[in-house]
Amino acid sequence: MPINDECDLVIQDLFFYDFRSAYQRIMSSIDWDFSEVDIDNKEERNIRIGTDQRGNENLSSFLIDTVTSILDWYLIQNGLDKSNVIISQRDGFILNTKLFKTDGFMNLDFRGIVQLLIISPDRKKYLAVMDDRVDVKGISNRYSKLDKVYDRFRFLNLYDRSVLFSQLQVIKNLIMDETDKEFFLIPHGEDVAIQSFSGPVIVSGPESFVIDDVKKELYFKHYVKEFIDAIFLHFY
Question: What pTM did the predictor assign?
Answer without folding.
Answer: 0.90
